[in-house]
Amino acid sequence: xxxxxxxxxxxxxxxxxxxxxxxxxxxxxxxxxxxxxxxxxxxxxxxxxxxxxxxxxxxxxxxxxxxxxxxxxxxxxxxxxxxxxxxxxxxxxxxxxxxxxxxxxxxxxxxxxxxxxxxxxxxxxxxxxxxxxxxxxxxxxxxxxxxxxxxxxxxxxxxxxxxxxxxxxxxxxxxxxxxxxxxxxxxxxxxxxxxxxxxxxxxxxxxxxxxxxxxxxxxxxxxxxxxxxx
Length: 230
Description:
The chain is built from eight helices and twelve strands. It is an alpha/beta fold. The radius of gyration is 20 Å and the shape is elongated.
């Protein structure tokens, strides 16, 4: 197991929200060993006070141990520190409820590496690694896309496809252009692979089944819509 600042990059402040129980000393030392400044909170009021004192890069909520509503906590955190993603730790067989407001979820039992990797994916990325159109943000290096409170990890080809769209916002991109950019081929005899990848990219960036961002242009290709400024 690699540890230290080099594993996750520069040191960041991580807020760990966990209940008062014998295992209270478990999560904070794990993250401290990885080179981060870890701040612990045990109640909703204490959590909100801590984020005002030192805005964290990531907030880890140990939901099985807390005795207050995680939904209400996430709502309050969205108002206080909307830029800080929440990682919700949940019981092994628990259903993931994305409406709670957490950016990511991790089920118990969890290993040091699994926790470290998940926190690393939520840490602020260098600006060069990020592409944003509207509220769709692609981390090119990590191949993860964030829209609102939802984060999705993409396959390498899905990430390249979305990157092409984000680098050409508002432009109509032909199917031939996309095949060349993503698969480096001019063969157009079978574009089902493109169709499948469009489907998965849509699932990652759209809020429902009616496309708002990734629009089909009949008989030509696709266009990534630029949302109007409010």
